[in-house]
Amino acid sequence: MLVDHFPLVGLRLTTPRLELRLPTPEELADLADEAAEGIHDPAVMPFLVPWTDRPPADVARGVILHHWLRLGGWTPQSWSLNLTVFSEGRVVGLQTIGASDFAVTRTVSTGSWLGRRHQGQGIGTEMRAAVLDLAFTGLGADEALSGAFDHNATSYAVSRKLGYADDGTQRHAVGGKLGIERRLRLTRDGWERHRKVPVSIEGLTPCLPLLGAG
């Protein structure tokens, strides 16, 4: 079975409303469709790499290729786990958690996107809480990093709600324009004080060596 060779396909995170896991091929197609329908105001770019600034068919194909690229380049020293987010069995978005040299740094970073029709319902907070539980409870992380451009008030609000603290700013060129990123850092203490979403983790133990935590 595939899970015997690549146990991450058996990893599941569940919250009161959501399930996060690697998708089947057809579910990956649904995720691509969700992205192609739009995930933010076209007038404002929330991503450092402007991957959504393309025709819908190219956006959809990019989601699929990026998913395969991350899995194909996987090593315990450098990994990025793109978990599809399901609400009531329906694909609603993507939640990423990644790390470099986790065995030494004990640090993860996160990123995400959510289909526009699913925004404003608290799903973004709940799916981030799921991977933070994976990081701190499951992997024994010491800290988690995130960031958002200064115009992305929604992402910033989610981070602060979950206990992140400001960690400086960084200037980027995005589409030929200046973008100011507000960096954020969550310590284990901050996570424990703001932890409110119950999370269940299944299938983690065989994944630990692949995540640099075994």
Break the fold down into its secondary structure elements and pairings.
Layout: H1 2-5, E1 12-14, E2 18-21, H2 25-36, H3 56-72, E3 78-87, E4 90-100, H4 102-105, E5 107-114, H5 123-138, E6 143-149, H6 153-161, E7 165-174, E8 177-187, H7 188-194, E9 200-202
Parallel strand pairs: 5-6
Antiparallel strand pairs: 1-2, 1-9, 2-3, 3-4, 4-5, 6-8, 7-8
Helix pairs in contact: 2-3
Organism: Actinopolymorpha cephalotaxi
Keywords: Transferase
Pfam families: Acetyltransf_3
Protein traits:
Aminopeptidase, protein-N-terminal-alanine acetyltransferase activity, alpha+beta, 7 helices, 31% strand, 214 residues
Task: Give an overview in words.
- The protein has 214 residues and is an alpha+beta fold.
- It has a single domain, classed as Gcn5-related N-acetyltransferase (GNAT) (Aminopeptidase).
- Helix content is 32%, strand content 31%.
- The chain has seven helices and nine strands; from the N terminus they run H-E-E-H-H-E-E-H-E-H-E-H-E-E-H-E.
- Strands 7-8-6-5-4-3-2-1-9 form a nine-stranded mixed β-sheet, sandwiched between helices.
- Strand 7 and strand 8 form a beta hairpin.
- Helix 2 packs across helix 3.
- The protein starts with a helix and ends in a 12-residue tail after the last strand.
- The model has no long low-confidence stretch (mean pLDDT 91).
**Superfamily at the CATH H level?**
Gcn5-related N-acetyltransferase (GNAT)
Would you list the SSEs in sequence order as H and E? HEEHHEEHEHEHEEHE
How much helical structure, as a percent, in the residues? 25-40%
Secondary structural class: alpha+beta
Shape: globular
CATH architecture: 3-Layer(aba) Sandwich
- Span between N and C termini? 22 Å
Total of helices: 7
Instruction: Detail the poorly predicted runs.
Output: none
> Which strands sit side by side, in order, in the main sheet?
7-8-6-5-4-3-2-1-9
**Rg calc:** 16 Å
Largest sheet: 9 strands, mixed
CATH fold call: Aminopeptidase
β-strand percent reads 25-35%
Q: How many strands in all? A: 9
Name of the top-level CATH class = Alpha Beta
